[in-house]
Each structure stands twice: as C-alpha cells, then as structure tokens.
Write a structure and sequence with these properties.
Layout: H1 5-39, H2 45-91, E1 98-99, E2 102-109, E3 120-127, E4 130-138, H3 143-162, H4 166-187, E5 206-213, E6 218-224, E7 230-233, E8 235-238, E9 260-264, E10 270-274, H5 276-279, H6 291-298, H7 306-321, E11 329-336, E12 357-360, E13 366-369
Antiparallel strand pairs: 1-2, 2-11, 3-4, 4-5, 5-6, 6-9, 7-8, 7-10, 10-11, 12-13
Helix pairs in contact: 1-2, 3-4, 6-7
GO molecular function: phosphatase activity
Protein name: PPM-type phosphatase domain-containing protein
Domain PPM-type phosphatase: 99-336
Length: 374
C-alpha cells in the first residue's frame, strides 16, 4: 500500500507533538502541586515538612520524565544525522588516495551548521580519455543547493566516460542543469495572472571547471565562471589566465567549445583546485584570505604531499576567519606520480581538443610536437 505525503508528514510531526505533551503535562502538574502545597494553610511544623517532601518527590519525577524525553530526542537526532551523513557520502563520494598514477586529496567545508555538503561539488574519474575532473559551485549553499549538485554530478559521472571530448561533457552538464531548473520551475506556484514562473532567468547558475589529464600528462580545461586552479611545484602559479565562459544557467553555451591547452603536468607537480569560498574568505577586519601565499608555503617543502597541502590550507583558512565560515568551500589537490614516458612507450594525446601536445622523452627534457596539418 502506497503512503501519501500527508500520511508521512503526519507521522513525522507526531513524535514532536507527543514530545511537547510529555514535557508540558508533567511541568503543569508539578506547578499545580507545588503551588497547592506551599500556599494552603499549615497546621503544624510536621505538615510543612511533609509538603516540602512532596514537592521534592514531584520534582524528581518530573526531572526523570524530562530526561527520558531529552534522551529520546538525542537518539532521534543521532539517527537523522547518520542518515544525512550517508546521503552526503553518496552525493560527494570519498576520493581514493590514488587514481591512474595521480595522488589525490580533497576536503569540503559547508557554511550550513551540521552539514558536510553544501553548494560545492567535485569528482575525479579515470576514463579511456584520461583522468577527468570536475569542480563547481552552485549559487547559494546548504540544502537548497543540493539538488543542483546532484544533477551536475550525476551527469558528469556518466558523460565523463561516454564523451570523447570535454566539450561534449560540458554540454551534457549544461543539459542536466537546465532540466533541473525546469523541474524547479514546475514546482513553483503560478505567478500573478496565471503565468508560469520563470526559473530559467539566469538567477540559478553553477560555475564549473572541467579538467582532463591525458595519458601524456597534458592538461586540458574548460572553465565556466570558475576560479582557475593553481599549479604547485616550485611555488604556486595559476594554471591559465584565459577568460572563462559564463556559468552554466546564465547564458547558452557557444557553438564552439575549444578546451584550453594548459601544458603538461610534470612528474611531482600538483594541481590545486578550489571554489571561490577559499579566495573570498575574510577575517574580522574584512581582509581577504591570501590563498596563493598559503599555497606557496604549503608546497615549499618537498616532497609535495596533496594531503598536507589540503590540511595546511584548511588550517590557514580557519585561522584567518576565526572559524566563521560564511560560504561553502571545496579544496582538491592532484599530484602527478606517473613515471616519465620514454620514446619506446610514447603515448599519443587523447582526444579533447586541438593544440599542442607534450611527450616526455626523458625525465629531464620534454620535447613538444606541433600537430600536423588538419
């Protein structure tokens, strides 16, 4: 037998209502008993003593009942948190420490108290076209943004394996986000005059950065309004400085999507990906967090450890803000642990966009080959 939403809502509200009754009834009885015992005329000293004893007994009984109610509420809260934590882990999966020759580490901070997942998203998958990475930031944070996060991540996990180029992956993400917006529009009440609400007005958008690290360690990227990552090696520097595309949902994607050719990720180098909450974090005086400086310090001592970089930047962020996080943040580090590819095992660049490709001949000197005509 199917349960209606009204039945589920009534059952969900019943424990809370019964809890109020359990608290109010003993409290009201205790108040009445104490008022009666202390205000009625006293016959003798022993009678006054018995009244005090009666008040203490009633007080202990009420305290016991209130403790039972509190313990039950705490148990239900633990169960709800366990279910929420399991759902969050399904949505933002824990990344493996190593994937296809890359060392990984990630951490997410939610601005919503009690939540591990907010409006930020990330995922790393190994595909036939190379390791593909997505990181994004949904407008807003907390529970209202989780629907968009689920739509984008679900689409990426399929498209990353199905699409030969990053442009195809990005178009799939855009279509998934548009479907999510249309579903939101259908859930909104009709506007004045009976018109359908317009949730596709550009107010709901998501910034997305797509990366592809091919078998030749060449990095390709498509950026829709997201902060560019940093390359960590001898210091910290932006991976690219090109003008990004508009965020998904703000404007239609252009007809031609050409990925940026960001050069090779050399052995031992790492990429630091983040959402804008890290750069926009402020202290009590309104000063922005110096992310590049913190990255340079975290990457100063070899060997460069992704887990150590994430841990140090996270600690520096908390020190800078005094623990007051006002926006969701996602931090992700990928280090290239692949051995250099020699002439005998040269691997062609994977599809993902035109441009230069870099093939390692030795551990010391890379040779760059321009693509042939056509």
């Amino acid at each position: 037998m199917n349960r209606t939403k009204a039945t589920e809502d009534a059952q969900a509200e019943a424990p809370a209502s019964w809890g109020l009754v359990e608290c109010a009834l003993p409290g009201g009885l205790l108040t009445a008993v104490i008022t009666w015992e202390l205000t009625r005329p006293a016959a003798d000293r022993d009678d006054l003593l018995s009244r005090i004893v009666n008040c203490v007994v009633f007080l202990l009984v009420v305290a016991y009942l209130l403790i039972r109610v509190r313990r039950r509420a705490a148990r239900e809260l633990r169960e709800v948190k366990a279910v929420a934590r399991a759902a969050q882990e399904v949505l933002i999966r824990t990344l493996p420490p190593r994937l296809d020759g890359l060392a990984l580490s990630a951490r997410q901070l939610s601005a919503s108290r009690g939540a591990d997942v907010g409006g930020d998203l990330y995922e790393v998958v190994a595909t036939a076209y190379g390791v593909r990475v997505v990181i994004g930031d949904v407008r807003g944070h907390g529970l209202p943004a989780i629907g968009a996060v689920a739509a984008v991540l679900g689409s990426f996990r399929e498209a990353a394996h199905d699409e030969a180029g990053l442009d195809g992956v990005l178009r799939r993400l855009d279509r998934a986000h548009q479907r999510h917006l249309r579903e939101l529009a259908r859930q909104e009440p009709p506007a004045a005059g009976g018109q359908e609400p317009d949730s596709l007005s550009g107010e709901e958008f998501v910034t997305v950065l797509l990366l592809e690290i091919g078998a030749d360690a060449e990095v390709r990227a498509l950026n829709c309004g997201h902060p560019w990552p940093y390359r960590l090696g001898r210091g910290a520097a932006r991976l690219a400085s090109g003008e990004p595309l508009p965020p998904l949902g703000a404007f239609p994607l252009p007809a031609d999507l050409l990925p940026y050719q960001c050069g090779p990720l050399r052995p031992g180098e790492a990429l630091f990906l983040h959402t804008d909450g890290a750069e926009d974090a402020r202290d009590s005086a309104g000063r922005f967090f110096a992310l590049e400086e913190a990255l340079a310090q975290a990457a100063a001592g070899p060997p460069l450890s992704p887990a150590a970089v994430v841990r140090q930047v996270h600690a520096a962020l908390l020190r800078h803000t005094g623990g007051r996080i006002t926006d969701d943040m996602a931090l992700l580090v990928l280090r290239n642990d692949r051995p250099p590819v020699g002439d005998s095992s040269r691997v062609p660049a994977q599809p993902g966009g035109p441009g230069l490709c870099c093939t390692w001949v030795s551990a010391r000197e890379p040779t760059t080959h321009a693509p042939g005509p056509g």
